[in-house]
Every structure is written in structure tokens, then in C-alpha cells.
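does this look right to u?? iron/sulfur cluster version
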Amino acid sequence: MQKHITCTVCPMSCDVVLELSADGEILSLTGNKCPRGKVYATKEHTAPERTLTSIVKVSGGAHPVLPVRTNKPIPKEKLREGMAVAATIQVQAPVTMGDVIVKDFLGLDVDLVATRDI
Ligand code: SF4
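got this back:
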């Protein structure tokens, strides 16, 4: 079984090809032009992560919502849960870009932070 993963670490966008066993173990990895591609593709195959970006409600400000994101990537399978939790959050203006809205978001040792002033 073969799996293609586009490395996004640099603009070269290498097509990394993983040869996988029937149970998904990586047998070989080719197509990466540097070692960072191996690290990226291995992680993307075994434990993919993404930065969550969302909005939370804000009262007392010039806008009704505040854009937020996690300060580190979180497991991809947690994104849906994170979006649902973010939809329940309400903060009070003023908020400054970089303010921590939720510390240890979802218990994942990442913070949900504001990405603009309101
Ligand atoms: S494998 Fe290396 S050269 Fe290719 S996209 Fe990834 S970081 Fe860039």
C-alpha cells in the first residue's frame, strides 16, 4: 500500500511517498529532498496535528466575535471537539492580541489565544 504526503515544511512541497504494510507501518519513505521531510511525513502519518483557528463570542467590543487560535498544533482528531468548545466561549472586551482566552485548552497543554485586539 502506498500513501502520498505533501511536505509543507518549506515551499519545495516535496511529494513524500510512504510504502506501508497492511497494518499501516512505514516500510520505506522516499521523495523527500531533505531529512525534515522524513520527520514531517512520519508524524503526519502516525499522529497528524493542526493549529485550530476559530472564533469566540465577545461582548462589549466593536465586533461580536473574536478570532482565536491555539498557540501550538493539536491532534487533528481533536479539531472538531475544539471547534465545539470554542463556540461556547464568551469573553468580555477589551481583549489584546495574544491574550490567553483558555489556558490548557482541552487539557492538551496548549493555550487558546486571541489573534486580534477588540
Ligand atoms: S522534504 Fe525538505 S525540501 Fe522537501 S518540502 Fe520538506 S522540508 Fe522542503
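The first strand starts at residue 2 and ends at 6. idk if thats expected tbh
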